[in-house]
Amino acid sequence: MTQPWQISRRTVLRGLGTAMALPVLDVMSGPLALAADEKKLTPVRMAFVYVPNGMHMQDWTPAAEGAAFDLPYILEPLKTHKDDFMILSGLAQEHGFANGDGPGDHARALASFLTGQQAKKTHGADIKVGVSVDQVAARKVGQQTKFSSLELGCDRGAQAGNCDSGYSCSYSTNISWRTDTTPQAKEIDPKLAFERLFTGGGTAESRSKREKYRQSILDFVIEDAHDLQARLGAKDRRKLDEYLTSVRELEVRIRNAGKNPEQTAKLPDYPMPSGIPADYAEHIRLMYDLLALSFQADLTRVSTFVVANEGSNRAYPFIDVPDGHHDLSHHGGDAAKHARIRKINHFHVEQFEYFLGKLKSITEGEGTLLDNSMILYGSGIGDGNRHNHDDLPILLAGRGGKTIQTGRHVRYEKRTPLNNLFLSMLDRVDSSVESLGDSTGRLESLS
Q: Is residue 316 within 8 Å of residue 346, measured between CB atoms?
C-alpha cells in the first residue's frame, strides 16, 4: 500500500536568496510527520496589545456580569465577536502606583504592565524593572519557531532620556523586557517587519533586485510554490493560495503606504522610516496583518504590540478629535473631553476588531487561528484623569486552544493582580512558572 505523501512543518518555499515560511497544512500531519511537528500543528499563541492613557471606563465596563451583558459604546465594534472574548474587571498592577516614588504614572503603567514589578526611578542608564510575561514564554517555547517573540509598535522606542517625571524614556516606550534591565526593541516600520518575517532579510542581491524591479517576494518563490501546489489536496491548495494572496496584498499595501512622507497626525520631531504610513489606521492594520500572518506561518507564538507609547499626545483629526490624546485623558470631568476621549478609545477598538476578524477568518485544525490564540488587549491605567492602576480595562480574546470560556464579563475581587492572569496564560502555552511579579496564584474562572 502506498504511504500518503507528507511534508515537515519546517518546509519553506525557496527562491533566489529567499526562504519563505508556509502556513499550517493538513499534509504536515499524520503518521509520517515528526513528533515535534505534530505538537506544532495547532499551537496556542499569545499576544499582548497595549493602548495608552487609560480608558473612558464608563463606556468600557459592561453593567452586567456573566454571558448576558450588553456591549458599552467603546466595545460596540466587537459585536460580531462577542462570543470570542472575555472582559475581566477588577484586575490591577499595584506597581503602576507610586509606592513612594512620586509622579510618573505613565512610565510606570507601561513598564509594570507585563512585569508586575516596580520600575526603578531613574532617567540614567541604570534602568531596572523585571522580566515581562511574553519573554518568560519566549524563553520556554521560543526555540520552536523562527522568532522567539515579535515586538511591534507604531511609535518609536527609546532607551534614554527623561520622559516622565524623572523616569527614563525606556519605561514609557517599551512593554517587553528580556531581562530586568534590557527592554526588547519594537519594530514600527511595516516594511522592515515584513522583510524580517518573510524574507529573512534575503541576500543583498535578492533585495536589490526586488527593489529595482518592484518585484514581490512571491516572484522569487513562485516555481517552488507551483511545484508544491501540484502535490497538495484541494483543501491545502486553497489554504496555501489564501496565504500567498494575503502575503502579496500585504506587500502592496506596505509599498503604497510608504509613498506619502507627510504625517496626518502630530508626531514627535524625528525622521520616520520609509515604510511608515501617513494614515495611522492603516499603520495599525498593517501591523495587525503582520502579526496575524506570523502566527499563521508559525514564525512566532509570542508577540507584543504597542499601538501608541504611554503618555502619547497624538491627535486624531481623522475622527474629528484635533486634541492630543494625553491632554484629553486629563479631562477633569469636562463633558466635551469625555466625549472625545471615548471616541479615541472607540477608534482603537475598531482597529482591534479588524485583527480579531483576520484571525477568525483563518481556518486551523478544527477551528480558527483565533480559537488557538490568547490575545490580551488593555492599558496599564484605568481612568486617565485619576491615573489609577486598579480596575484596569482588560479584554482577553480567543479560546486558548479550547481552554477558555469566552463570551462573558467576569468581575474579580478588587485589586486582584493582573499577573495572576499571566500565570494562567503561561500554563496554556507550556511555559508554566510558580510566580511572576506580584502574582498570588492562578486566575480562576477562565474555563
A: no
Phi, psi of 394 (to 5 degrees): -125, 125
Vertex 159 angle, CA 154 and 163, to 5°: 80
Residue 69 lies in a domain: yes
What would the pLDDT profile of 292-333 be if each residue is shown by its tens digit? 999 999 999 999 999 999 999 999 999 999 999 999 999 999
Range of the domain at 90: 48-189+300-427
Taking alpha carbons only, the member of 337, 315, 334 closest to residue 324 is 315
Beta bridge partners of 201: none
- Strand pairing of 373-378 and 45-50? parallel
20: part of which helix (H) or strand (E)?
Answer: strand 18-21
Which CATH number is 406's domain given? 3.40.720
Going along 270-372, which residue ranges are E strands?
302-306, 315-316, 321-324, 363-364, 367-368
Mind listing the pLDDT tens digit for each residue in 194-235?
Answer: 988 987 655 555 556 556 545 678 888 888 888 898 889 888
pTM of the predicted protein model: 0.91
Q: Please indicate, yes or no, if residue 92 is contained in any of the structural domains.
A: yes
